[in-house]
Design a protein that fits this description.
single chain; alpha+beta; 103 residues; elongated; Translation Initiation Factor IF3
Amino acid sequence: MLITTCDVIPGRQVEALGLVRGNVVTSKHIGRDIMAGFKNMAGGEIKSYTDMMNEGRNIAEQRMIAEAQQLGADAIICARYASSSVMEGTQEMLAYGTAVRYV
């Protein structure tokens, strides 16, 4: 499945099938919070949070792809990612785009 942030696929005519999306909400682990607190004092990357965000992005993307496949899509254009805090200690990762079929 081709996934692109572009709104066209060069050399291809496409038919829009509709919006597809995938999301996941994950929570922080108490161990991550403790280590993050120490890292926050010293500065630098908090690797456990980076890993959590990457994992969330991958899950959301796979769910978006599955939704596009159910529509019979060949590609997803205008793909975007967004994240937000749902409540204290959680984060939501959202992947969305337009499912298209080649014509």
